């Protein structure tokens, strides 16, 4: 796995590890107040980034398109804003980061949909 696929997978691993540590911390403290933020980190960081990584790995023509790098950048910004943004919103501090991260993530998913629909390519078999 190389290029944007590898970058997505590395972000997925970091998000997964952070989500696991956060989950363990919540369990140890028996305070699950921020579990929605933890869930967003796991779903958008670990799961979505893993799916994006495997798609770009299996469809090299999509990974070679400059839009793939834009997609990567948008997703990273969205995850970095959204998970702490949800935590801040739950604590009643501000919803700004959660709102901004949500809109950026929506934009990244629309871009991904465009890439899947419009970039010609075939799934390649890899060993």
Q: What can you tell me about this protein's structure?
A:
The protein has one domain. The protein contains five helices and no strands. The chain has helices at residues 3-29, 35-58, 60-64, 66-90, 96-118. Helix 1 (3-29) runs antiparallel to helix 2 (35-58) and helix 4 packs antiparallel against helix 5. The longest helix has 27 residues, at 3-29. The relative contact order is 0.15.
Layout of helices and strands, plus pairs?
Blueprint: H1 3-29, H2 35-58, H3 60-64, H4 66-90, H5 96-118
Relative helix content: over 70%
The beta-strand count equals 0
Radius of gyration: 16 Å
Oligomer: single chain
Secondary-structure-based class equals mainly alpha
Query: Number of DSSP helices?
Result: 5
Give the low-confidence spans.
none
Termini separation? 11 Å
Largest sheet: none
Provide the succession of SSEs.
HHHHH
Shape: elongated
Number of individual domains: 1
Range of strand content: under 5%
Keywords: Membrane, Transmembrane, Transmembrane helix
Produce a short descriptive summary:
The chain has 127 residues and is mostly helical. It has helices at 3-29, 35-58, 60-64, 66-90, 96-118.
Features:
127 residues; mainly alpha
